[in-house]
Specification:
Layout: H1 2-16, H2 18-34, E1 36-41, E2 46-51, E3 56-61, H3 63-69, H4 75-110
Antiparallel strand pairs: 1-2, 2-3
Length: 116
């Protein structure tokens, strides 16, 4: 019962800080657009840069892979390049998720919110 009362007190405190929390979240979202992660696959044959809002900033493909995409390679080659692109994208998404966990945890601690 006392834990519930303590939680209610914490909730009341958070409700009083809604304006500050909203402002910090807007600032947080803006900062996420500026933070980037980079991931690659195929030993760097495909490299993806993604920002903290899960927006792809750049995709770089090794010149040898570009010739495959241009139709010089076989269907198997094209499938391999497509898998490398998908793998690099997935790795970038994972890195952004880790960035968000870290950044949200820091932000939550700074505002007295429970950790994420």
């Amino acid at each position: 019962m006392f834990d519930q009362l303590k939680n209610m007190k914490n909730l009341a405190g958070l409700m009083g800080n809604l304006g500050e929390i909203r402002e910090k979240m807007e600032q947080f979202q803006a900062e996420l657009g500026e933070k980037t992660v980079e991931a690659d696959s195929g030993a760097g044959a495909v490299r993806v840069t993604m920002n903290g809002r899960f927006e792809v900033v750049t995709v770089t493909v090794d010149p040898a892979m570009v010739s495959v995409l241009a139709g010089v390679g076989t269907d198997a080659d094209r499938a391999m390049v497509e898998e490398l692109i998908a793998s690099a994208m997935n790795a970038a998404v994972f890195k952004v998720q880790e960035l968000l966990k870290e950044t949200l945890g820091e932000a939550a601690g700074g505002m007295g919110l429970p950790g994420v």
